[in-house]
Glutathione S-transferase family protein
Amino acid sequence: MAAQFARETGTKGEFTRQTNRFTDRITADGAGGRVPEAGRYRLIVSLACPWAHRAIIVRRLLGLEDAISLGVVDPIRDERGWRFTLDEGDRDPVLGIGFLSEAYLRTDPAYEGRVTVPSLVDTETGTVVTNDYPRITLDLETEWTAHHRPGAPDLYPPHLRPEIDAVAADLFRDVNNGVYRCGFASSQEAYEQAYDALFSRLDVLTERLAGQRYLVGDRITEADVRFFTTLVRFDAVYHNHFKCNRNKLTENPVLWAYARDLFQTPGFGDTVDFDQIKRHYYATHEQLNPSRIVPKGPDLSGWTTPHGREALGA
């Protein structure tokens, strides 16, 4: 089987995600030369992308909409990369560019990797500050506190950070990136290893969530945000398109209730766009879906049904 991303495929057919090229940080103490500044930075996202969706949710939960503007690319990514064809004139109205790759090449003219979202761009220079998606949300939570809305939740409380970090590491390896390791595997062996790791981890998380409402502590944290963006795409995309088909999310009573609980929390479900999610995956991954036909299903009505998890505490 031909690999979807040849540069990110190992010798045994395993998908190995590229490292993040731009890793500058914006910190409250200005240690890296940048400080949080309302209106200075623009978060570029795809509503289809789970990695970008994390940043969208955190930005919404913390009330950073006025401090950090949002640019949304077209869910259909072609050989030229992420495009701003949802905007008038096919150009981002703030950055004035037609493709996110323009900001990448302005930052590093020799860049040859995949252009990814989320990317945080400096609107004054037009250069990319960071595309380091795991660090972006943590910095929004810990370095941008002066711009948080009154009463904003603490998604990364200091006393829970070691546990959040441990859970997040398992989530990334086996679940968040695990579904991609299933979908983009180019050998049976690599696929089955990823599949087994994915569902073994989901079984562990199911057991964990059977007795508590959230992944860590008694509140929504960064860990829940990271899990949600995979779960909300599971039945619509990963179960079929990425061959993660031991069972659907809706066939796991614990995880299905947990996902609905989060979906019905402001900042989660209201940031989900199932149409863009499906069109991106099914119309972009030509190696997996040459016809580019986008499925009509699944039925989405269940997402708003009662979840019954209040009894586990909040």
Observations:
- The two ends are 47 Å apart (CA to CA).
- Strands lie at 41-45, 69-72, 119-122, 128-130.
- The mean pLDDT is 95.
